[in-house]
Amino acid sequence: MKKELVELKINGLTHELAIESSALLLDVLRQELQLTGTKRGCDDSSCGACTVLVDGVAMMSCALLAASCEGREVTTVEGVSENGSLAAIQKAYGDWGGAQCGYCTPGFIMTVRSLLAENPKPSEDDVRAALSSNLCRCTGYNQMYEAIRAAIAAERKELVGAK
Amino acid sequence: MRDPFSIIGKPTAMIDAAEKTTGAGKYTDDLSLPGMLVGKILHSPYPHARLRRIDTSRAEKLEGVVAVVVGKDAPNPYGILPVGHDEHALALDKVRYVGDNVACVVAVSEAVAERALELIEVGYEVLPAYFDPEEAMKATTDLIHDNKRGNIEKDYHHVFGDPNRGFRDADHVSEARFIANEVTHAAMEPHSTLASFEIDPHTGKPGRLTVWSSTQVPYYLQHKLSLVLEMPMAQIRVIKPLVGGGFGGKSEVIPLEIIAAVAARKAQAPVKITYTREEVFWAHRGRPRTIIDLRTGVKKDGRITAVNARVVQDGGAYCSYGVVTILYSGALLGALYDIPNIQYDGYRVLTNKPACGAMRGHGTVNVRFAFESQLDEIAATIGMDPAEIRRRNLLQPPCITVNGLRVQSYGLPECIEKTVERSRWKQRRGKLPAGRGLGIACSHYVSGAANSIIRSDMPHSTVNIKIDRDGGVVVYTGASEIGQGSDTMTAQIAAEALGCSLSRVRVIAADTDLTPIDIGSYSSRVTFMAGNATLRAAGEVKKLIAAAAGKRMGCTPEDLIFRSDRVFRKNAAASVGTELAEMSVRPTQHQASVSGRVEGQILRGSLQQKRKEEGPKDWMTFEEAVVAAIDFHGALTGTGSYAPPAEARGGKYKGGGVGPSPAYSYSAQVAEVSVDQETGEVTVHRVWAAHDCGRALNPVSVEGQIIGSVWMGMGQALTEEMVWKDGMLMNPGLLEYRSPSSVESPTVEPIMVESIDPEGPFGAKECSEGSLAATIPAIANAIYDAVGVRLHESPFTPERVLAALRAKKNAKALDLTEGVDPTAPARFREHGGSLCFDGKGPQRHALDPSRCAASKGGGD
Q1: What is the mean pLDDT of residues B477-499?
Q2: According to the model, what pLDDT value does residue B611 have?
């Protein structure tokens, strides 16, 4: 298949790429840009390990054509840490056992980012509903809830501190 | 009293947590090498067929294809067990399950490789196939493996004590058949292997091989590669990058690991193969469908007099870990309760389905479901509280069970007490609203198998430690981090033993060129065995440091205390004690590494010199002590190894090698469920899970492992099941397999019980598998408490629950398959996954909706 030139804005940087029009965003991220934090866990958009933010909305990059993301802002897990240090949710996932094998973690981090951007004070049911788009085989999800609570508390503290 | 430990027992973030949460950590599929090619495997569309002909010429001619590999490129047989060398990298003469490996294309891209697969022509002579183990056992012709009569991989017949007398003495005997359907690991990371040969510049021939693979046991992979490739092990380096979950599925050599190496050799270039999710399901090696005919006899007072278990496992097409699985099923009837008489007949049977292998709670889970369900039934019959009947049958350790298992630390009584208390069992049981109930069950598991699968006297774990002049501690261990916290545990034990901060310790793990042999992450052995080896290695280094530091401080090495990055004289430690107590609180890794660096630079300069000149003092910094030791001894390294003691290695009977462990973990659980009597749907609301882990080295990880085990057990109890139709997996996808999502997952309350094992590192035992087995019967028993039906087959799907409820009311069974594809399995399920053979293999049924739509679209 003939390749086309596409401009993708990923984690704030614009990349000019020659890709096939059928190329999936997931494959372009992983193979063309070496952004391997975004994972492939299934064949049929069922696991959520490849979740990225497109214009702030959590989407599965295995079900998106890369070319369709032209002119949109794509954020991957590599774009989450702030100035090289862990974002509150990343630190909390580590401290509270939200990540075990870590393979699903980038997808969860993106889903949680999207949830908290939309709903800064989610109830436990909100959190459960949001996380149901992603699968984890290690944690049983329980420690993720604690991590998310801790991250919310940490961010609130930071906000108060800044005032 | 001051906490005797400064590192262990404190909730600690895993040392590789940041790598995982930032996406910076590399798993095998994240790696690439210059010139790397992609491998794709052609799988058999038939469950049982003879290979008549393979023509790869058209595929080889396709632009972009570098090589096509077939069976004769690597004909040596292998298998994870020395008694089960029945697999080949690619099929030689026969395929034995849908998905068996036939050929591999190496090409420049996945798309080219997939196109080439379609160009390979294979002539199959289809043979009759066996899908049901009890049918397979009757076979006399077309055996799956010619040397396995009756398709029986292995059978064992064990008698301990006098079961006949035991049953005669019983006041009540309960008997039933239980079936636990097949489940699989479905680790989030699909298997992946990258293999690369160094090409000898003089001869142009492949030389040393390096393999990166998603494996739980680099050493076994190195061993099997050596066998198949006919290369010395020293010429093979296996590196385990981050592994995205294993649960046993990566504890043996998976076909793609061997195929990638064979392909790389033929292609003379690095080759990476990553399974699709569907291929992961075919690779399988999960928990076999198990049929358990169980008979238990008890006295009126609830004491068990005898147990008779006949167990048939549907093992799939190859031996895999099967011989071990069927032995565990029998052996782990003992060591939980005091059972004086046991008869066990176990059959591991071959069928034309993907091979089953080791999965979390290896061998014990399904039999435990049967046993704990039956015990509950007995309690109801004799009118005893189900928690009480378990108390009546406790072991009296230290003891040796009737089947030769040595039990020392035994936290089961406390586990039962704690779950009963926390779930308010006594107050709430029987008083819940209709359709809601509580159930209790117990389980246990080995902390590492006391006998390695490769018979030898070599240590099961060896660890090296090296310390540099700036006080950086490097631990080299073959133990495999697979997400369970192995590396963190190793670092914690080294830091605790050396009295230094965790941030000083760097763990180099699971690289066969760098790290000493360790038999890997399975049978929950890492904490106990690699932990003990780490402790011994650290002890050896500490001795060297103490000798030098003692000299410098004018005291004997025994008078020194290592703690909080300092080495103290004993009496001085008391005076600086309060200051220390503050410091022992673990700083965040970030702070620790920063302060360590600054302090290090200063000390290495003039201050260090000044302190040196001041002569003997009450304390030295860890770095000063290390420098003193290196100056004194010349180098600072230590080695420790661990082999289970002879007393823990079990009875001398045939098959007695499986089951023994230096220590057992214990678990007791109470599950609270509700059952919708209209739909048969079961909801688990909460599980209280007490687990005796000996000592919790890292409470966050221990709790995480308990919750994860309970959750995985709940999956098997309620939704997870591999559904087969004529050897074809109907649900090879994560949604169709129904791995529970966050909305279906209950709150699990982990309760840590610390029995302090006399031989474990700081008293620790396993915590990652033992809890799984209790969850399934706890839920089954809770369902009984809720609606009065006893389920004998897992998972407890709405269909099965509803059928049981209707049977109880003598109502006509609902036919849920009415009007559905007549050849579909009895329980209708949607076709799952993306199975497609382009006309070469099984087709979807004519009544399949997708085909109906296609033919309508075609214009009739």
Answers
A1: 97
A2: 64
The total of structural domains in chain B comes to: 3
Residues of A in contact with B14 (CB under 8 A): 94, 99
CATH number of the domain encompassing residue A133: 1.10.150.120
Q: Residue B81 is part of which domain span?
A: 31-127+189-244+250-283
Predicted local confidence at residue A83, as pLDDT: 80
Beta bridge partners of B293: B177, B310
Statement to judge: residues A108 and A50 lie in one domain: no
Contact residues, chain A, for B719 at CB < 8 Å: none
What CATH number is attached to the domain comprising B90? 3.90.1170.50
For residues B293 and B379, membership in a common domain is answered with yes
| Reported pTM | 0.93
**Closest Cα partner for B740 from B716, B707, B776?**
B716
User: Would you state the pLDDT for residue B37?
Assistant: 98
- Give the burial class of B31: count Cβ atoms within 10 A of its Cβ; 0-12 exposed, 13-18 middle, 19 or more buried: middle
Kindly state whether residues B269 and B120 are assigned to the same domain: yes
- ipTM value of the model? 0.97
Are A57 and A94 members of one domain? no
Contact in structure between B358 and B285 (CB atoms under 8 Å): yes
Please tell me whether residues A67 and A95 are part of one structural domain.
no
**Number of CB atoms found within 10 A of residue B369's CB:** 32
- Please check whether residues A74 and A92 belong to one and the same domain: no
Query: Domain residues for A117?
Result: 88-162
Put simply, whether B190 touches A (Cβ < 8 Å) is yes
Name the closest residue on chain A to residue B27, using Cα atoms: A103
Q: How confident is the model at residue A82 (pLDDT cuts 50, 70, 90)?
A: confident
- Asked if B176 and B381 touch (Cβ cutoff 8 Å), the reply is no
- What does the pLDDT look like over B26-76, one tens digit per residue? 999 999 999 999 999 999 999 999 999 999 999 999 999 999 999 999 999
Under an 8 A CB cutoff, do B21 and A136 touch?
no
Nearest CA in chain B to A138: B708
